[in-house]
Amino acid sequence: MSDDTDDAPGRRHHRVQRHATPGPLNSLQYWTDAKPVWRVTLNYLLVWVARIAPFLRWKNWALRRLGVTVGRGVSWGLEATPDVFWPELITLGDDVIVGYDSVILCHEFLQEEYRTGEVVVGDRAMIGAKAVILPGVEIGADAQVAANSLVTRDVPPGTTVAGVPARPMSSAESADEE
Length: 178
Known about the structure:
- InterPro entries: Hexapep, Hexapep_transf_CS, Trans_hexapeptide_repeat, Trimer_LpxA-like_sf.
- By secondary structure, the protein is α/β, with parallel strands linked by helices.
- About 20% of the residues lie in helices and about 25% in strands.
- The chain has helices spanning about 30-35, 35-50, 55-65, 170-175; strands at about 15-20, 70, 75, 80, 90, 95-100, 105, 105-110, 115, 120, 125, 130-135, 140, 145, 150, 160, 165-170.
- Helix 2 (about 35-50) runs antiparallel to helix 3 (about 55-65).
- The relative contact order is 0.14.
């Protein structure tokens, strides 16, 4: 998967840490070596609160207890899911909106390694419903991620992205959406 473009500007790969696994099984088989069971269990309960709590204040309380950096005025949508293993790698700027049923991942379990990376969402950025953000991605201030998008690369400030994988929308496409 590594090639010369992995470290190109806008790519997340240079911000993702690689962790080798100790044996022949896929890396998810060794998750208890990466994180304590008690911590992941507590995280799971707090993720559940963040997903279904009816009030933003409760959601943001649960996110902060998970270790997420939560700015002022963050709106965490119903059923939105932060990373259960490494939520402390998520930073949400002020007035961020995370849409219904979206997922922010800070880890990838692969066959011979697992990877972790910070996800930073800038001030006033918006993540649409059912979007998935991969580890190491930075979403700039005032950026918008369309619903059902898979964000595999950085999103520059003020940019609207859509699709699988998410790509910048043209000015005409953005105007049609309004």
